[in-house]
Each structure stands twice: as C-alpha cells, then as structure tokens.
Design brief:
The complex is a heterodimer of chains A (about 260) and B (about 270). Chain A contains ten helices and ten strands. In chain A, β7, α7 and β8 form a beta-alpha-beta unit. Chain A starts with 9 loop residues before the first strand and ends in a 5-residue tail after the last helix. In chain A, the strands form two sheets. Chain A has a six-stranded mixed beta sheet with strand order 6-7-8-3-9-10, sandwiched between helices. The radius of gyration of chain A is 18 Å and the shape is globular. Chain A is of the alpha/beta class and about 260 residues long. In chain A, α4 (about 115-125) packs across α5 (about 130-145), α4 packs parallel to α6 (about 160-175) and α6 (about 160-175) packs parallel to α7. Chain A has helices at about 50-60, 85-95, 105-110, 115-125, 130-145, 160-175, 190-205, 220-225, 245-250, 255-260; strands spanning about 10-15, 30-35, 40-45, 65-75, 80, 100, 180-185, 210-215, 230-235, 235-240. With about 270 residues, chain B is of the alpha/beta class. In chain B, the strands form two sheets. Chain B has a five-stranded parallel beta sheet. In chain B, strands 2-1-4-5 form a four-stranded antiparallel beta sheet, covered by helices on one side. In chain B, α3 packs across α4 (about 155-175) and α3 (about 120-135) runs parallel beside α5 (about 195-205). The model of chain B is unreliable at about 1-10 and about 140-155 (pLDDT under 50).
Chain lengths: ~260, ~270
C-alpha cells in the first residue's frame, strides 16, 4: 500500500439536501458525513425514501446540496470540492476518474449505438482515436463482463436486462475509473441474473482496486460486496461500520428492525 | 491446569482484558442481555486455548468480538503485531484496520459457510491466499498504467493467472488432506452437505498462516477421519506459532489440541 491510501478518496461532510418546495423540515438528506478510502467498497442501505439515492446524486454532483460539501482527491492527489468546480470540470471528472452505474441500464447506456460503441465511447472521450485499439478494448471488456464478442455490433436494445447491466458495467470500467458510484445496480434484475452480476462486480472491483459506493435496499448485496455499510433512515445516517458488525450486532433500533425483517432464503 | 507456553517470547499474542458485552434489543423494549462480564485471558504463540462451559455463556460471542463482528462495550483485546509494530487493540480498531487484519493476521473458521454465488469451492479457499499475496505485493493504483495504447491489457491477466494457479495448488492440497472429493472442487459449495462446507471453511482458514486463529466448532459435522485431519492441521498451525482460540464440543479433538481450557462461567 502506498501512503496515498491513508487519505480518503472521498470525504462527505455534513451533507444535507432539501428539495425545493418541500417544507423547511423535510430534508431528504440531513447531516451525512463519511469517508471512502482507496479500494474500499461502502454500501448505503435503507428503505425507499430514506434519502440514499439523493445522497448518491449529491456526491456525484448531479444535485446541488443545500448544506455541507463533498471533497474528492484526484489521481494527481489534489483535493477538489465537487460542488465548487465548474460544470465542465465536473464533467471531465465524471468521464475520466468516476463511473456511475444506473439502476436502469437504459439510463446509463446509449441505446442508439452498438454495444461496442457504448464501451469505446468513454475511451474516445479520453482521446483514443485508433479504431483497432477501441475495438480490441471493447471486445476484451465485453468478454470480461461475459458478453459474447460476436454481439459487439448489436444494439443494446437486443440485449436482456442482465446483459444490458453488464454492458453498462463494462462501459463504466473501460476507462479504469478510481471511484464508481452505483445506484441499485441489481434491483431491476431477476434473482437468478442478480447473482452473476454481483459476482462480476465483486471480482472487478477487487481486481481494479476501485473505490465504490453502492446504494441498495438489499442487505444481501451489501453483505456480499461491501466492506463497510451505512444505514440511512429519514435522511440521516443512523449507523455505520464494518458490514458484518452492522448486520450481526446492530446498535440502532432501526438497524435491528431492518436486519430482523429480512426473510431468509 | 496451565501448561507452559511453547515459546520463550514473553508477550502474549492475544491479551483479552476485562471485556464486557451486553446485547440491547430495541425491538423488545430495550431488553438487555449481558453476555460477557469482565472476561480476561491470554494466549501465547503456539498455544491453543479452548473455551468451555455451558452454552449461552458467551463462547461464540467472545469469538465474534475477537473477529470484530461484534462490538465490545468495555475492555481491551490486544493483538500482537509483527516485530517493530505496536500491538493493536481490536476493540478500538477501525473498520479498515479490521479488514486489513482479517486478510492475513486473523482467521476465523465458523460452523457455517457463507457461500458466494458462482465461486467454486477451490476458489473460496484460494481467494484468501490471493488476498494475502496482493497485500504483500502492495495494491497498485490502476492509474499508474496507461489507458488504451497498443499493449492494452488493463487487468494483467498473466500475472493474475499465475498467482491464482499457485493459490489453487495450495487450496487443492488442503482439500485433499480433508478428503473432499476432487469432483466437488470446481463446484460452488452452496448445495454441498454441512460436512463438505465445513471442510471448505477449514481449508480457507488454514491456507494463510494467521497470527490469531479462531475456531468455532471446526469439527462439528465431521467424521473420525476428517477430525484427525483437522487435528493435524491445528498442530501444524501451533508449530508455526499461531495463537488459537477455539470452541470444541468434541472432547477427543479438545484433548488433542488444547493446551488450556477457559470456562467463561468461572470468570
């Protein structure tokens, strides 16, 4: 480990978000603080409406927080305040150092271009122009996420939900981001397809030494993927810690309820 | 009751000092269940301490506190570190520190295997060895390598394959010692019998020599032949200097491996 690993990649400080028009006390996210380190996978769990997706969107710079701030340490080890930089700078970050995996693959893919183009588009965004290089990269990423190379020229519309989600992962990881944000990456899929995707995410995140933040309502997903877990309720982080400790020895009343509500398979 | 320690080092590998743990059940009106009340014990390198006593006295709870799955309310859990490094209080360790320690310093063999989808038995075992190898080489920042370019190979398959093959070879020899049929090695263990899953757990726990080895009923569902295989693995771990805390309801196994018994209801 190098010494950079002692500094967080992402620092979220006292973050709050209240949607315009909502009442004064109806904060979607309130006073959220945590850090994410290199190679760490952190899950944000909680029921619908707990504010977890709003928190993720604030971190991604897609929503302007009402309070608090988000700091990101770049590959050059400079700190940027995600909400203080320009929209253009934020887009460059999102394209180069970050990935964002949407719950609905169709929101994260370009549905009008081929599977191969979806993967190579982000590489082109980084300046790669050689056709053969782009095609080779697209092929190797399709194989990595277990998509048949022969389907490189097919439209993602012809893909199943699970295949589209794997393509979205390939598209995001092809540029080797340092930080990947995922919003319910498996919840739109059948259970039988979820396992494959989860295993792929698990293996790729570890191999690439990625930092990842995964929003999920599925405690099994957090248990499988995350080193640490944050539990959200009514916009607040009510408990956070080592994933197995949060689930096996929950301290907060809400976490105890959440854990005891899971139906064992 | 106490046999002399096998090595001459004066500091114990594990020193548990006055540990308290109470469960508070908020869903039952805050009902409090005190489980550990002032537990202290020491384990030296090469020693195996067996936790004994009736069930419900916190044997498994203490193991989970040592592994970090349970929070301790009060007290200290000191784990020695390699020469030149200060010992760590597991009760105060951060999640990141605990994850780091679990990769190579602390191993936990439970009665149950949490199977991962799709991962074959041999890789469940090999994975733990791979993680430790990764740590030794130092995790590299993927940004150090060029993006794109003619030698586009972002994940360096060759190096990974070599490490994986080496780890699989070790995993295979452990599974063979534990008499797990070769036909099962390539299958995900979710559908295996309890005894088969347990042997995979054992192999995973023993593939990487750990400073602290936690064994929660490692032989609960094993036959005599495999119990003996586990006893010999525990003996080897002791000779390598692991400090072991175990729960063994099987008296034959306990008598064979334990240097000392600690009854939590006496403390």
């Amino acid at each position: 480990m190098n010494n950079h690993d002692d500094m967080p990649v992402l620092t979220v400080q006292a973050l709050g978000h209240a949607f315009a028009g909502a009442g004064r006390d109806s904060w979607a996210v309130r006073d959220a603080s945590f850090e994410l380190f290199a190679g760490e996978v952190v899950a944000i769990v909680g029921e619908s409406g707990s504010g977890k997706t709003t928190l993720l969107n604030c971190i991604a710079g897609r929503l302007q927080p009402t309070a608090g701030c988000v700091h990101y340490r770049t590959s050059r080890s400079t700190e940027v305040d995600v909400h203080a930089i320009s929209e253009r700078e934020r887009r460059v970050l999102a394209r180069t150092e970050w990935g964002f995996v949407e719950q609905q693959a169709s929101d994260g893919l370009r549905m009008n271009v081929s599977a191969g183009a979806n993967v190579s588009e982000r590489l082109m965004g980084l300046g790669e122009r050689r056709y053969q290089t782009l095609r080779t990269a697209a092929l190797s990423w399709m194989e990595r996420v277990e998509l048949e190379g022969a389907r490189i020229d097919d439209s993602p519309r012809a893909f199943s939900g699970g295949m589209r989600q794997r393509l979205q992962i390939a598209r995001n990881l092809a540029t080797r981001p340092r930080l990947v944000l995922m919003d319910e990456p498996t919840s739109s899929l059948d259970v039988s397809v979820q396992a494959r995707l989860l295993d792929l995410i698990r293996v790729l995140v570890a191999r690439l030494h990625l930092s990842a933040l995964i929003v999920t309502h599925d405690l099994g997903v957090a248990r499988l993927l995350a080193h640490r877990t944050l539990v959200m309720r009514h916009g607040r982080i009510v408990e956070q810690g080592l994933t197995d400790r949060v689930f096996d020895d929950p301290q907060h009343a809400y976490t105890q309820l959440l854990v005891s509500s899971v139906v064992a398979a | 009751m106490m046999r002399p320690a096998l090595d001459q080092e004066d500091a114990p590998v594990l020193a548990v000092r006055d540990v308290y743990k109470t469960f508070r059940l908020h869903l039952r009106d805050g009902l409090e269940l005190p489980v550990l009340c002032g537990v202290s014990l020491e384990v030296r390198a090469g020693q195996c301490v067996a936790l004994v006593g009736p069930s419900g006295r916190g044997k498994s709870t203490l193991m989970k506190c040592l592994y970090g799955s349970y929070r301790v309310d009060r007290g200290e859990l000191w784990l020695a570190q390699p020469p030149g490094h200060a010992r760590v209080d597991l009760a105060q360790a951060s999640p990141r520190q605990l994850i780091e320690l679990r990769r190579s310093e602390i191993a936990y063999v439970s009665q149950f295997l949490r199977a991962l989808p799709r991962v074959p038995a041999i890789d469940v075992v090999a994975e733990r060895r791979l993680q430790a190898v990764d740590d030794q080489h130092g995790a590299h920042d993927p940004r150090d390598e060029p993006i794109g370019g003619d030698d586009f190979d972002p994940l360096d398959e060759t190096r990974h394959r070599q490490a994986l093959e080496a780890a699989r070879e070790q995993a295979g020899s452990l599974l063979a010692r534990l008499n797990l049929p070769r036909g099962l090695w390539g299958l995900p263990p979710a559908t295996f019998s309890g005894g088969e899953q347990q042997r995979i757990n054992i192999a995973r726990g023993f593939i990487e020599p750990a400073r602290l080895l936690l064994l929660d009923e490692p032989t609960a569902s094993l036959d005599a032949l495999n119990r003996r295989a586990v006893i010999s693995l525990i003996d080897e771990a002791k000779r390598r200097g692991s400090a072991i805390v175990g729960i063994f309801h099987d008296e034959e196994v306990r008598d064979a491996v334990a240097d000392r018994c600690v009854d939590l209801s006496d403390l």
